[in-house]
Amino acid sequence: MAKSPPVPPPSSPVPLDEKRASFEREALVHLDVLYRVALRLTGNPADADDLVQETMLKAYRAWDQYEKGTNAKAWMLTILRHAFINEYRRRTRHPETVDVDSIEPYAVFPEVQDEDPQGAFFDRIVDDEVLRAIDQLPEVFRETLVLSDVEGMSYQEIAGILEVPVGTVKSRLFRARQLLQGKLYDYAVEMGYIKGTPA
Amino acid sequence: MNCRECVEHLYEFLDRELTPELEQEIRAHLEDCPPCEEQYDFEELFLKFLRARCRTQGAPAELKKRVLRELFGE
After folding, report:
1. Number of domains in chain A
2. How far is A197 from chain B (nearest CA, A)?
3. Does A118 share its domain with A162?
4. Shortest CA distance from A173: residue in chain B
5. What one-character DSSP code corresponds to residue A4?
6. B64 interface with A at CB cutoff 8 Å
7. Do the domain assignments include residue A2?
């Protein structure tokens, strides 16, 4: 008779209460962050809701693999981004066909240096207009800018989430900010908040 | 450090992503160079403005309920 395989030691699953408590403490607290990022990625509230819901489910299922007390925010944003790429991007936004490396933004400061060096015109631009301008950025710039400038993540964390080198984060962020400034500046000129340099 | 190098590193400086040595060089340059300092103020203001404008929105209450319901059946 064949020897039966050794019986594995009884696993000690984390009690459900404990799992739930740690998930609430470390993961659920990032709901707002996940939602804001999801909204900027998908471009609409209904898909953002679904994406966040799915991210939370995936994160809860994989919770035992997450090393507690490390960086739940970055871990969950990575899950969210994968879910977005695999399931949502196809039917919401289309991946860029433009070559983002060929985009050469210009610096706004020299344009406003004389008229409004303190950037007072920014104060007149309302939230919705800023979000709209962000939504018009190419996806690779948009995601980098949102993670950094809205959610305050470090270059290293962003590099981990986007799976690109830190140098790429740096250069995308530089160009994303300049591009966004340019859009907001153009808008401010159009609205008459600032005279601007005549073209 | 010249102005071009300073402006190139301005965002990393604002993001606190530079080595202490380079950070010190930028700080020293900014103290001596009013135009670069002005640009530093402008970029700093822009980043603060961006964060203030974009963080007002949070997840809808309904979504939170939906997530809790789905995860814990409540």
Report:
1. 2
2. 18
3. yes
4. B11
5. P
6. yes
7. no
* Burial of A147: CB neighbours in 10 Å, binned 0-12, 13-18, 19+: buried
Number of domains in chain B: 1
Domain boundary, last residue among A29, A64, A88: A88
pLDDT in tens, B16-74: 999 999 999 999 999 999 999 999 999 999 999 999 988 888 999 999 999 999 998 87
pTM over 0.90, yes/no: no
Q: Which residues of A touch B72 (CB under 8 A)?
A: 20
Q: Is A151 found in the same domain as A81?
A: no
CA-CA-CA-CA torsion sign (A136, A137, A139, A144)? negative
Residue A73 structural domain: 17-88
Q: Is B19 on the interface with A (CB under 8 A)?
A: no
Q: Cα separation of A131 and A183, whole Å? A: 11
What is the value of ipTM here, to two decimals? 0.91
Closest residue in A to B62 (Cα) is A49
Amino acid A17 reads D
Burial class (CB in 10 A: 0-12, 13-18, 19+), A166: middle
User: Which of A33, A61, A88 is a domain's end point?
Assistant: A88
Shortest Cα distance from A150 to chain B (angstroms)?
5
Alpha helix (H) residue ranges in A62-164: 72-83, 109-112, 127-135, 139-145, 155-162
Q: What is the mean pLDDT of each run of 10 residues along chain A (199 residues)?
A: 56 76 94 96 93 96 91 96 85 62 80 89 90 93 95 96 96 94 93 78
* Contact state of B54 with A150 under an 8 Å Cβ cutoff: yes
Interface contact flag, A49 B66, Cβ < 8 Å: yes
